[in-house]
Amino acid sequence: MTTAPQPATLRERKKQRTRRVLAETAVTLFTERGFDETPLDALLDEVEVSRRTFFRNFRSKEDVALTALKQLWSAYLDVLDETPKSGRLVDVLRDAMLATVERMDGDWYRRFAPTLRLVARSAALEGHSLRHCAEMQTRIADRLGTADSLELRLLIEFAVAAWRCALDEWLPDCDPGELPACVRRAFASMDAGLHLEA
Amino acid sequence: MTTAPQPATLRERKKQRTRRVLAETAVTLFTERGFDETPLDALLDEVEVSRRTFFRNFRSKEDVALTALKQLWSAYLDVLDETPKSGRLVDVLRDAMLATVERMDGDWYRRFAPTLRLVARSAALEGHSLRHCAEMQTRIADRLGTADSLELRLLIEFAVAAWRCALDEWLPDCDPGELPACVRRAFASMDAGLHLEA
DNA sequence: ATTGAAATGCCACAGTGTGGCGTTTGCTCC
DNA sequence: GGAGCAAACGCCACACTGTGGCATTTCAAT
User: Are residues A161 and B164, on separate chains, in Cβ contact within 8 Å?
Assistant: First the structure.
């Protein structure tokens, strides 16, 4: 569960509420009409907020669409901080991802699945998504690396690549119960892939 | 060598020439003033072409900046088509990249190195670059895959990731003679990375 | 209740990318 | 070498994204 710490002040709760409504409405609206085809104003009219306040809460149109994805990565980094690093690092990264996926609640899954479909359909979203992955990779490296080695960099690249492959396998059905199996399968296939023969 | 087939017609040569001048000027201009900080009009004024003709030759401001990168991938796909696929596929992909890098001429290297530095400094360029890599991955899969398997997908992800790591190692010096060694080192470290222990 | 800070809304602007349309340029056929 | 034709070009106007200034509202805290 992504436990929202229930901010004490009313003002803060209102702000969080508009953030949440914007992210949810964005996913449904973009799903209905397409990301590239839907002007931002359509979202602003729907939620009834001004352009100004939108850009105080989100960096861009892509940003709001990818909220669920970013929440996952944020949770992943949290899990990684709590994880003891022992044994093969690729297993550490995989188990952290499994634990993260386990923590997310049903509401998140209802936003995550359509988000993935949006990314698959829009080049702009794919670009932002990949860039965000790259940023997460540097964060992961900071948390793992005593020294910044080529091997470590490769390892993290491979783990994130395996994660993206797992999502591709999960995408057709998007059954929350199946995601861990997809992750395990992708990570288990890494060695076989690397040694694949023609 | 990237042998430009010398288009017979003068009209076509003029078009190619403006394309080339735009790409070259873009790299130098963006290097001097920064990609995000330089409006497109600055490039158009410098080369003296209208906005309309620019967008007939390039899809976006990012596109023109990444010309050298796209040329490399185009050459890579050509090499891959001529390559017999035998043995470990990861070696096939690596050797094809080595052969591609070998083919590029000095002029290309003079544009490629600053292009990489631009990508490292601009989030927008990094996003476009990563998306282009993703597109190339599907192209590679088409050329390799009889059936679309998880292992194949992973393999291609890993190979492209290794290539990007090689570029990161090459970036500080950007000595054309050193690039093959960086590629070999990155690909040789894949197994070690995958089995890295904490 | 008053005061101060934070959030919002409105407005204007820079920049990117697209489409229409008339004009120029170079190719081709006579 | 001239006429006709298609492609490329330049100019103009427009939609959309994202930013900054400034007045107004809303909540918090005393």
Answer: no
Nucleic acid strand C within 7 Å of A51 CB: yes
Give the helix ranges, DSSP H, for chain B.
Answer: 10-33, 40-47, 51-57, 61-65, 67-82, 89-103, 106-121, 123-144, 150-170, 179-188, 190-194
- To 5 degrees, how large is the angle CA A29–CA A31–CA A36? 85
* Nucleic strand D within 7 A of Cβ A173: no
pTM for this predicted structure: 0.94
Cβ–Cβ below 8 Å for A155 and B196: yes
Spell out the per-residue pLDDT of chain A, length 198, in tens.
544 556 678 788 999 999 999 999 999 999 999 999 999 999 999 999 999 999 999 999 999 999 999 999 999 999 999 999 999 999 999 999 999 999 999 999 999 999 999 999 999 999 999 999 999 999 999 999 878 899 999 999 999 999 999 999 999 999 999 999 999 999 999 999 999 998
**Alpha-carbon gap: A144 to the closest alpha carbon of chain B (Å):** 8
Instruction: Name the amino acid, one letter, at B78.
Output: D
Are B13 and B101 in contact, with CB atoms under 8 Å apart?
Answer: no
Residue A139 half-sphere exposure toward CB, CA atoms < 13 A: 16
Instruction: Determine contact: B140 vs chain A, CB below 8 A.
Output: no
How far does the CA of B67 sit from the C1' of C22, in Å?
32
Nearest to A179 by CA among A118, A101, A99, A106: A101
Q: Does any strand C atom come closer than 7 Å to the Cβ of A49?
A: yes
